[in-house]
Every structure is written in C-alpha cells, then in structure tokens.
Amino acid sequence: MDPITHITSGALAGQAVRRKFPARIWLLFCLIAAIIPDIDNLSGFVSPEFYLIHHRGITHSFIGGLVAAGAIAALFRVFSRKFPFWWGFLIAYGTIVMHIFLDLITSYGTQIFSPLTSRRYALPCVFIIDPLFTAFLLAALCASFGWKSKRTHFAVAGLVWIAIYPMANLGMGLGVRHYAEVQLNHEKIVHQNLHVSPDFLAPFRWKVIAEDSTSYHIGGINLLQPGKPLRLEPFHKADMNLLRTLGERASMFATYAWFSVYPIMERQKTADGSSVTFGDLRFYTTFLNRNAGFNNGRMPFSLTAFFNREGEFTEYSYMRPGRAKTIQHLE
C-alpha cells in the first residue's frame, strides 16, 4: 500500500489510544510503528535483485514484527522511564500487523511467515493506490483532530474501515469473477483458469486474466459501464526453463522466476542480435496500458536479456518503477 495510507493508519492508531494514554508521544510512537516495516526499502540501494528478495520480507512478517515492536517500545522506554513497555509493545505490534495487512491485500505479495518460508502471500482486493480507501481514512483522521470530544470515535471508525473496505471488495471481486466467467463463456473464449484482481480506480475497475496452457489474456471490467464487451489482450507465458537457464549466468533471472506470479515474455530482434523481455501481469494495469504490450520494455518490473548475433547472452536490463533502467554487462 502507498506511504500516505500507512502513515494515516498509524496516526489513527495514535488517536485511538490517546484517551488511555493522553500524552502526544503516543501519536509519534504509532506513526513510527506504522512505517517501520518499510525500512526494507533501503534494500533497493544494495541492488535491484536484493530489493526483489527482501522487500516485504522479514520486516513485513509476523515474527519480524515482534522484534520491531519490542525494539520501538524499548527505545521509547530509554527516553522515558514512565513509558509502559508492555502496553507499548502490544500497540506497536498491532500497528505493525495493520501495516502487514494493508500490504497483504494488494497484489504485490508479502512474506508474512519469513524467515520460516520465503513464500509470498497475497489477498488482492485493494489496488496499491486506492483514492476512495485512503480518502475515508484521511477524513476520519481530520475529524479526530477537529472534534476532540469524539476523537476516539472517529479514529476507531477509520480503523474499522481498514477492515471492512477490503472485505467488501473481496465480495465484489467474486461477483466480478462470475460476470467475467459468463462473458468468456458467451464469447467462447477457452481458458483453464481465471484470475480477478483490482485495477486502478477500484472498486469500479477490475483486471481479468484468463489463462490457458500457453498464454495469458488480460482485460478490464469497468462496473460503471455494465454490458461493455470484455476485450482481452494476449501475452505469451514466460518460458520458465529459459528463465532458470539464464539464471545460471545471472542470478537475477532465477530470482525473477521465484518472484513473478503471471510471468510473460516477448522476443524481439535488435540491431546487435535479439532480446527476450520478461514481465509480470501483476503490474499491468488495463487503465493505462491498454493495447500497449510491453510498451518498449517500460512495463514495471520488466527484465530483458540481450543476445549477440551468435546467440550468446551478453547483458540484461531491469526496469523498476521510479528508478532509471539498470543495465548489467556479463563477463
């Protein structure tokens, strides 16, 4: 989930406990607890591969959260001997778990059981940036500051919204899935599996991925335009054996095979030989990328291998959102 939502959720937690712990220090305490899991963003300064492996890893797990909560409570106890360590520990852990939940309900995936397993779990029912979801939280937070006599009520209402909005979206997603299934059967589109997840401007827009043995077909459903035909754009499934073979030369490709959920690929001729670009439809939005394909290698989290005229793997590039494309030459 985006930083604004995480910060707002922490502020709401701080406002919710201020009746029992009136000192303003609790607002700062909860804000720190709400954002501390994202300290793993620093892993991006090590390398793109290190980021893929460790972002939403141990700091976003239930076990890692226990350590972080204890550390935050202990730090505040050092600065104030009157600070109640165990209450602080419980409140910090609850706020950290809320952060984990907010990331779990997006499609990126979170290693909630790290370090016991590196498997990523996701319950995609909220888009990673959801204006409606965040706007209500901000409104509840502003109200909690504006009406001090009702501070706790507004704060609790905001925290309850964090739970009920995703659950409502889950139910809506089931309805969208049924609607998409009917549409696919009506248009006689053969598929083995059907995946539905929120798209940009959810809960009104949803992404549909119909899967067969060799391809993914992706399209969007806009609930504000009922009855509109479901148009699907095809993508070739990634050759996982090729990914693993490339991973023997550059570990980034083996990591990408572990990281991706809906892996796709595209082959192209280049001036010096050829290239193969891998992507993940988790990060494709039908709202912005309609009929754009790989958009010349600019799909978020796309990984491209380059081969010379003799077919030798010589270099690769990686596109991470918000960062310049990185190019790595092989020896």
Strand-residue proportion: 15-25%
Q: Mean pLDDT score, rounded?
A: 91
What's the N-to-C terminus distance?
Answer: 38 Å
Structure class = alpha+beta
Number of domains: 3
Give helix % range.
40-55%
Work out the radius of gyration: 22 Å
Report the major sheet: 9 strands, antiparallel
Low-confidence stretches: none
Report what the structure shows.
- The protein has 9 helices and 9 strands.
- The protein has 331 residues and is of the alpha+beta class.
- It has 3 domains: 165 residues, no CATH class; 64 residues; 92 residues, no CATH class.
- A 9-stranded antiparallel β-sheet has the order 1-2-3-4-5-6-7-8-9, with helices on one face.
- Helix 1 runs antiparallel to helix 5 and helix 1 packs antiparallel against helix 7.
- The longest helix has 36 residues.
- The model has no long low-confidence stretch (mean pLDDT 91).
Helices, strands, pairings?
Blueprint: H1 3-16, H2 25-35, H3 48-54, H4 62-79, H5 85-104, H6 131-146, H7 151-186, E1 193-198, E2 205-211, E3 215-222, E4 233-237, H8 240-247, H9 251-259, E5 263-270, E6 273-280, E7 302-308, E8 313-319, E9 326-329
Antiparallel strand pairs: 1-2, 2-3, 3-4, 4-5, 5-6, 6-7, 7-8, 8-9
Helix pairs in contact: 1-2, 1-5, 1-6, 1-7, 2-5, 3-9, 4-5, 6-7, 8-9
Keywords:
single chain, nine-stranded antiparallel sheet, 9 strands, alpha+beta, 18% strand
Please give a quick description of this structure.
The chain is an alpha+beta fold and 331 residues long. The chain has helices at residues 3-16, 25-35, 48-54, 62-79, 85-104, 131-146, 151-186, 240-247, 251-259; strands at residues 193-198, 205-211, 215-222, 233-237, 263-270, 273-280, 302-308, 313-319, 326-329. A hairpin with a 2-residue loop joins β5 (263-270) and β6 (273-280).
